[in-house]
TrEMBL record:
<dbReference type="InterPro" id="IPR034660">
    <property type="entry name" value="DinB/YfiT-like"/>
</dbReference>
<protein>
    <recommendedName>
        <fullName>DinB-like domain-containing protein</fullName>
    </recommendedName>
</protein>
<feature type="domain" description="DinB-like">
    <location>
        <begin position="18"/>
        <end position="171"/>
    </location>
</feature>
<dbReference type="InterPro" id="IPR024775">
    <property type="entry name" value="DinB-like"/>
</dbReference>
<dbReference type="Pfam" id="PF12867">
    <property type="entry name" value="DinB_2"/>
</dbReference>
Length: 185
């Protein structure tokens, strides 16, 4: 079982990783792709931005609507929640096909993509803090690609953090494949 504090530490680490690994890079390197059908660093971050644009406001609304003295930070999981988490775990090497509107492949992206990603992390950390007073086990978050299905607040927060970790690892792998003399920055 995960707690909000563990998830917060994960998100904080993700934010610091992005700052240390990607902020120093030139825009051309941030847009560099190891292969035509793979994503660049910025495309990985843009994919996460697209999810954050949906999940952060939905989480904010659900947390506010379900606030009220709940101090139990134990997250319990639905079948759908477990399945969703297993799918996005970084150690799950199985490729998943993303829904079309969440696929940033061949996008023209600038440094604002990285800045937006960092802003979303700050916002997510604030949501995690607010969630400490909410009912984490309330089914209140419609799944982005099929809104009839709902996840619990706590499992959604964990899903967002794990999904981010998966694609940050992907972006770090792209960085490793950049030309050595250029990526050392």
């Amino acid at each position: 079982m995960n707690t909000l504090d563990q998830i917060s530490r994960t998100v904080e680490n993700q934010k610091h990783t992005a700052i240390a690994a990607f902020v120093p890079l030139e825009l051309s390197l941030l847009n560099s792709k190891p292969a035509p059908d793979s994503w660049s660093i910025l495309e990985c971050l843009e994919h996460l931005n697209r999810y954050s644009r949906y999940y952060n406001p939905v989480l904010a609304k659900a947390i506010a609507a379900n606030a009220g003295g709940n101090t139990d930070q134990t997250i319990s999981y639905t079948w759908l929640g477990k399945k969703s988490l297993d799918m996005v775990r970084p150690e799950n090497g199985k490729k998943s096909k993303t829904v079309k509107h969440m696929n940033p492949n061949n996008s023209q992206l600038g440094r604002q993509t990285l800045e937006e990603f960092l802003d979303h992390q700050t916002e997510l950390l604030q949501l995690l803090d607010k969630a400490k007073g909410a009912n984490l086990n309330k089914k209140a978050i419609p799944v982005e690609f099929f809104k009839l299905l709902k996840l619990r607040i706590g499992e959604t927060l964990e899903f967002v953090a794990l999904h981010q970790e998966r694609h940050l690892q992907q972006a770090l792998n792209v960085k490793k494949q950049l030309p050595v003399n250029q990526a050392a920055a």
